[in-house]
Amino acid sequence: MRTLGAAVESVEPGRVVLRMSHREELTQQHGFIHAGMLSAALDSACGYAAFSLMPADAAVLTIEFKINLLAPARGPRFRFDGRVTKPGRTISVVDGRASQVTASGEEQLIATMTATVMTVTGRDGVHH
Q1: How far is residue 76 CA from its own chain's centroid?
Q2: How many CB atoms lie within 10 A of CB 101?
Q3: Where are the domains of the chain?
Q4: Which of 126 and 40 is assigned the larger pLDDT?
Q5: Contact 43, 115 (CB under 8 A)
Q6: pLDDT band, residue 126 (cuts 50/70/90)
Q7: φ, ψ (nearest 5 deg) of residue 34
Q8: Strand pairing partners for 12?
Q9: What is the pLDDT of the chain when averaged over all its residues?
Q10: In what order do the strands lie in the sheet with 59-69?
Q11: How many beta carbons lie within 10 A of that of residue 56, not counting itself?
């Protein structure tokens, strides 16, 4: 999160929204935010959304995700919205949506993600 310059915008049970600004060091050759950076931010939003429904002593790990990149990530600002679709005791499914917010305040969907996230308890070296 620190490397991406991402911050928490809001948290509620089963939903987390992160925000991030366009930064040149996160771009690819055309000046758009790199797909890997978008993936990392959406993965964080999805993971935190699942984590918000887990027991206090649990940790969270992503098992897999699929991302659809819908439009170039120009910015200048971005929102990453993770929402739990199917909570589970061990495995949860989370959907994520990344939007860019233009200078005029218009919001455009630029990527979607479906993530499978695991609740981890009692494992050495893995903690919240």
Answers
A1: 18
A2: 16
A3: 7-120
A4: 40
A5: yes
A6: low
A7: -65, 145
A8: 15
A9: 95
A10: 7-12, 15-21, 77-86, 91-101, 107-120, 59-69
A11: 5
Instruction: Return the number of other C-beta atoms located less than 10 Å from residue 109's C-beta.
Output: 13
State which amino acid sits at residue 117.
V
Q: Side chain identity at 110, as an amino acid letter?
A: I
Q: What is the mean pLDDT of residues 43-59?
A: 96
Amino acid occupying residue 74? R
Output the pTM of the full model.
Answer: 0.93
d(Cα 115, Cα 50) in Å, to the nearest integer? 10
pLDDT band at 123 (very low <50, low <70, confident <90, very high): confident
As given in the structure block, the two tokens for residue 86 are 């199917």
Tell me the sheet residues that pair with 79: 19, 99
Q: Which CATH number fits domain 7-120: 3.30.420.40, 3.10.129.10, 3.40.50.150, 3.30.430.20?
A: 3.10.129.10
CA distance 114 to 91: 13
- Cα separation, 10 vs 77, whole angstroms: 16
H-type helices in the chain, by residue range?
35-51
